[in-house]
Amino acid sequence: FPNPVVVYAYVHEYKAPALELVVRVPQLAGAFDVAWQDAFNQGLRDRLESYVDGMKVMATEAWELYDDEYRPYPYEGIVDFEVKLNQGGLLSVAIVNYSFTGGAHGMTIYDYINVDLTTGKTIAFNQLFDTDAELERVAEVINQRIAEVPQCFFIDMFTPDRFSEDQGFYLQDTQAVVCFGLYDLAPYASGIQEFIIAAP
Length: 200
Hints:
It is built from 3 helices and 9 strands, in the order ββαββββααβββ. It is α+β, with helices and mostly antiparallel strands.
């Protein structure tokens, strides 16, 4: 069943000689608990402001190191999001952060928000896959992919101790998609690695 919660974008744009930013962060409307909703929304806006302030400082410092002839291209930052699931009392959102600060290419980082809207509590990876057997099940799916295309990975075998404390994942229908960022398991050219797992 669809959730009554609506996800909309809070947009912040900034353009200066040293930096260009376009930021869209998710905000909620229609949650059962308005106080929880306000705190959730404010927390995401606070993270946005911290990111914007950090990029401004970094870009300005780099810009001032060089004279006009040798100044680098403006730094660039783009933040956007995709709602992966918003039904059955569950909300899952992927936030993508692309930053270019010079070099051959930019860097893309994903963050994932998974919430039980009936309680207002965040769903963590170690709550969803909370036994050794479940972790082994996820690792087996990852190892199947490694076996199929070993040239695309840094490692020969994945073991459950490689899962991080804040392991990224998102929800979709009856599945969880476990995610690894650039360079976590594979080179930049291989992109973000995602593994579809039947939810426990």
